[in-house]
Every structure is written in structure tokens, then in C-alpha cells.
Amino acid sequence: MSRHETAIRIRAAAQDDLGILWDFLAIAAYEADIAAAQTVPFVAAHLAGWQRSEDFGFIAERDAEAIGAVWARQFSPDEQPAFYVDGQTPEVTIGVTGAARGEGVGGGLLSALLAEAARRGVGLCLNVRHDNPARRLYERIGFRLVPGSAVPNRVGGTSFGMIWAAPR
Ligand SMILES: CC(C)(COP(=O)(O)OP(=O)(O)OC[C@H]1O[C@@H](n2cnc3c(N)ncnc32)[C@H](O)[C@@H]1OP(=O)(O)O)[C@@H](O)C(=O)NCCC(=O)NCCS
To answer: For a Cys staple, 24 with which of 29, 95, 125, 145, CB 3.0–4.6 Å?
Structure first.
């Protein structure tokens, strides 16, 4: 049976999924592996102390193997996140394994995250590098670029802030 015949399952991320989430944080941050991601405090901050009371996320699995993950974390301004909106707009981190990209896994994960954010009555924000094709996915699902949010990123390019507002 080819892997495409096996259904993708999306489930809520739990406290003991930290190891899995680290795999996807390395992917989301374009680091070579977990060890490299752990050496960058700005990156590691996205999972420090997981699962905080306000953290929520989802994991996509195929054949019981994790192929993607998304989560939202409410930073405080003193943690100096790259893009801070307010105390009701947690930041999204998302990654899908290279082999599973372009099949709708990222879109499915984001849909689950948006539904949970709406249920909690919070918005969502994220930070995206100017040349990342993921920007199209974010726009398709309802995120909007924030004018004036462009900042130099840690790899010498520019990143933008994007926001999704929960429907009223
Ligand atoms: C972004 C990402 C999570 C999307 O997951 P996915 O399962 O491929 O997404 P879907 O199949 O639901 O949607 C496809 C969309 O993803 C984006 N995408 C496709 N390939 C991509 C890639 N290599 N890198 C980033 N985004 C990509 C495009 O917007 C694409 O839409 P398009 O077909 O209109 O061009 C995944 O590509 C990934 O992990 N990329 C590397 C890490 C990353 O960029 N994370 C986000 C940091 S802000």
C-alpha cells in the first residue's frame, strides 16, 4: 500500500509530545536538526516550558508517524518575540516533513489551530521570511500581512508579521 492510501490523522498535541514538537521546531526554523535549534535561544523559546497553560497545538500523523505539527504560544513582551501583537494573539509555529509537503497537511493543521483559537477567543500571529512560499498558504487561510512589520531577520533577510483575527 502506498503511503498516499493511508489517512492522515490530526490530533491535539499533549505535554509528552515535546520531543516530537522539537523535530518540527527545527524544521520551522530552518535549523539542521534539534541540537542546532536548541543552541539558538530565540528558537528554543518557542518550546521552553512546554506545555504552558496557554499553549495549544496539533500533530499530523500517518501510519502512527508524526509528519507535521503546529502550535500556538502566547509570549510576553519581555520574552522579546520577533513579532508581538498583544496578550490575546499567540504566535504560530508550523512544520511538515519534507516528504509530506504540498499534500494539504500544513493546511489541515492550520485549520485545526484556527478552530481551537476561535473556540478560545484568541487571534493568531506569525512571523514569515519574505521569500517563504508558506506566505501564500497563510494568506489563503485568512492571515493578513501587517503593514510596517518588516524587520531584518537572523539570516540576513527580511521577515514580516501576519495576523489572523478570530471571527466575531
Ligand atoms: C509551510 C509548511 C508547513 C506547509 O506545509 P504543507 O503541508 O506543505 O502545506 P499544504 O500542502 O497544506 O499547502 C501548500 C502550501 O504550502 C506552501 N509551501 C509549499 N512548499 C513549501 C516549502 N518548501 N516551504 C514553505 N512553504 C511551502 C505554499 O504556500 C503552498 O501553497 P501553494 O501550493 O499555493 O504554493 C511546510 O512547507 C514546511 O514545513 N515548510 C518548511 C518550514 C516553514 O517554512 N515553516 C513556516 C515558517 S513561518
So the answer is: 95
In 3D space, the residue among 62, 59, 60 whose CA is nearest the CA of residue 6 turns out to be 62
pLDDT tens track for 125-138: 999 999 999 999 99
DSSP 81: -
pLDDT at 113 over 70: yes
Q: For ligand 1, is residue 137 a contact (CB within 6 Å)?
A: yes
Our answer on whether the CB atom of 136 is closer than 6 Å to any ligand 1 atom is: yes
**Separation CA 30–CA 151 (nearest Å):** 18
pTM for this structure? 0.95
Superfamily of domain 3-164: Gcn5-related N-acetyltransferase (GNAT) (3.40.630.30)
